[in-house]
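FORM 7B: Structural annotation worksheet

SECTION A. Query
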Amino acid sequence: MTTLFFSFRSVRTWKILGFVVRFLALNPGHRQQLIDDPSLVPNAVEELIRRHGLTNTARLITQDTEFQGMRLKQCEQILVPNHLYGLDERQVDNPLAVDFTRPHPEQRYAAFGNGPHRCPGSFLAKLELTVFLQEWLARIPDFTIKPGTTPRMASGPVNTTHELHVACGTGQRCPQEVVDQVGPLIA
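SECTION B. Predicted structure
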């Protein structure tokens, strides 16, 4: 059980990390905001999770049924996009905008599931993302998506970044220990 728990935690943290790095590579103003005021990092983690989501709920239909006029047949699979909860304008003002000063973004997403289905490793995942951003931005404040590459993302039970190549800023060398730890995120 412990191995399984840590295995899922690591995978999900790694998958959201790609969305976070991509967002910061494409939005230097947001990145600079975190560099100028590192106290915003914990709230930024919550806001980035709200904006980008992570998990979706997959279910197998056990019997033929109809739901709101839609026929669902036994053995069909459905995927409930939990990540859209954080993008619902009834829950969040201007939901597509990322605002690191937004009050309590953690109350406005279901990225780690909810109720009894909430991921038990979600608190550790958020801590890992916080530490990652603090250390990454201290060492590599200037980075972009590597020219000539295209990030590859996918949605499914867990949204993921399949490929993301990052280049360090002009005249800046990516430290080898960061390359070793982050692996395929660095080109």
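SECTION C. Observations
Strands lie at 57-60, 65-67, 70-72, 77-80, 143-145, 152-154, 160-163, 166-168. The radius of gyration is 18 Å.

SECTION D. Sign-off
Analyst initials: ____
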